[in-house]
Amino acid sequence: MVKIKLSEELKEEMKKLREEIENLKEQLKDATERKLRRGRGIYIDIGNRVHDYIEDAMEGVAEGIHGELEKSIFIGPRGVRIFRKEEPYEKEDEVGISFPRVAEVMSALGQEHRLRILNELMSGGRYINELQEKLSEITASTLSSHLKVLEESGLVVQEKVRGRYLITMPGRTAYKMARRVTRFLERRNQE
Amino acid sequence: MMWRNYQLDNTVLKATEAIKLWQTEKGIVEVSKDTLAILIKLGVQRRGYIFHGHGRLLLDTIVETDEGAIGKPVEKEVNEPFLMMEDTEKVQPHLNPASKEDLTRMGYENLQEFVAKAEDLFDRVFRGRVHSHRGFDESDGLIFAFQNEANRLDILIGKGSKMVYKGVGIVFVSNEDKVVLKSPGEVVCSNGGKSIIIKKGRSVIVRK
C-alpha cells in the first residue's frame, strides 16, 4: 500500500514538474519572441523579485546616504554647512591645544564687559567711538584694555587702515558657545 | 613699449617729508622723511621710483563673513629697497636731490652703491620675466614690489579701490565687496553677503 501511495505521489509530482517545464518553455518562447521583436538581449520575466530587491537595496543605500548627510551636512535657512567626519576623542594636550591656550580663551570670555563687546560686534564691525557710545557704562581706557585682551586671544581683530574692530570666526563661535553652555546649565539647574 | 626700455636715473633723491604713496580703505604705503629715491624712466617720462628708507605697509587683508572675520592685517616696516610704478606727478614735488650725508645716513658710502642696489631690485622685478613685453601706463594703477624676509618679492597692485596682494603664504584679491583670501590652511571667497570658506582638514561653509 505504501509503495502504491508513493508511486502515485511521484506521478503527481512528475506531472507538476512537467507542467512547470511546459510553463517555463512557454515563458522562454515568449521571451525569445520578444527578443526577436526588440532585437536585443533575452528578456526573462522573473516576477517582482528583482524589483523588490532593487527597492530594498536602494532603500538601504538611501538610508545610508541620508544617515551620512545627517551627520555631516546641516541645511539651515542661512546656508549649507558641511562638517568633517567626527574625530575620536583625544585628550586636549594630544590634539595640540594647550591648557594655557584654553585658559586664555576662557579668560577672555569670562568678563561681562568683554561679552557685551562681543555681543555688539556680532552685528558687524565697529569703530571704537561707536563701541564707546553703545557701551557707555565702560570707560574709554577700560574699553581699550578689554579690546586688547580680546585681540590677543584671537576673538577680535582690528583693521589697521580703517581701525574698525571685527569679531573673528573663532570669536563668534566662542561667544555663541558660551551662551549655549550657560543656557544649558541654567536649564539643568531648573530641572 | 617694453619693460627693458625702462631705465634708472642716475640722480638720487630724498623725501622732504613723509609721503603717502598709496592709500585706500584697505591699504596704505607710506615713506618717512629722508627716504632715498631713484627715478625709473621710460625715455624722458617718469614712470616710478625705487625707495630706500623707512617705509610702512598696512593692509587689511581681512574678509568679513557671516561666520566672523577671517584673516589678519598685514603691518610691515619696510626698511629694504622697494619699487613703485605709478604716475609720479603727486610724488615728485616731495622729492629733492639727496646729499652725500643723506646717503651715508642710510648706510651707503656713495651714490653707486645705492644705484647698484636699486638696479638689483629693478632687475629682479622686471628683467628676464616672461610677461616683460607688456607696457605700463596709468591705467595699470600702481605696482609695488617689496623684498620680504624670505628674500622674495611681495607684490601689491592697486587700482582705485581694487587691490591684489601676494605675500609670503597669502594672496588677497579685493574688488569692492568681492574678496578672495588664500592664506595657509584656508581659502575664503566672499561676494557681498555670500561666502565660501574652505579650511584645510576641517570644514566647508557656504553662506548665502
Rg of chain A, rounded, reads 36 Å
Q: How would you sum up the major sheet of chain B? A: 13 strands, antiparallel
Range of strand content of chain B: over 45%
Alpha carbon gyration radius of chain B: 19 Å
Q: Which fold name fills CATH's third level, the topology of the domain at 99-190 in chain A? A: Arc Repressor Mutant, subunit A
Mean pLDDT of chain B: 86
The CATH homologous superfamily name of the domain at 99-190 in chain A equals Winged helix-like DNA-binding domain superfamily/Winged helix DNA-binding domain
What is the rounded distance between the termini of chain B?
A: 45 Å
Beta content of chain A: 5-15%
How would you spell out the order of helices and strands of chain B?
EEEEEEEEEEEHHEEEEEEEE
Helix count of chain A equals 7
Indicate the percent of residues in helices of chain A.
Answer: 55-70%
**Would you tell me the overall average pLDDT of chain A?**
77
What is the general shape of chain A? rod-shaped
Report strand order across the widest sheet of chain B: 11-1-4-5-10-12-13-14-15-16-17-18-19
Broad CATH class of the domain at 99-190 in chain A: Mainly Alpha
Q: What are the segments of chain B in which pLDDT stays under 50 over at least 5 consecutive residues? A: none
Distance between the termini of chain A: 81 Å
Total beta strands of chain B: 19
Query: How many strands in all of chain A?
Result: 4
Number of folding domains of chain B? Answer: 1
Task: Describe the protein in words.
The complex is a heterodimer of chains A (191) and B (208). By secondary structure, chain A is mainly α. Chain A contains seven helices and four strands, in the order ααββααααββα. In chain A, strands 1-2 form a two-stranded antiparallel ribbon. Chain A has a two-stranded antiparallel sheet with strand order 3-4. Chain B is mainly beta and 208 residues long. In chain B, the strands form three sheets. In chain B, strands 11-1-4-5-10-12-13-14-15-16-17-18-19 form a 13-stranded antiparallel beta sheet, with helices on one face. Chain B has a four-stranded antiparallel beta sheet with strand order 2-3-6-9, with no helix packed on it. In chain B, a hairpin with a 2-residue loop joins strand 14 and strand 15. The N and C termini of chain B lie far apart (45 Å).
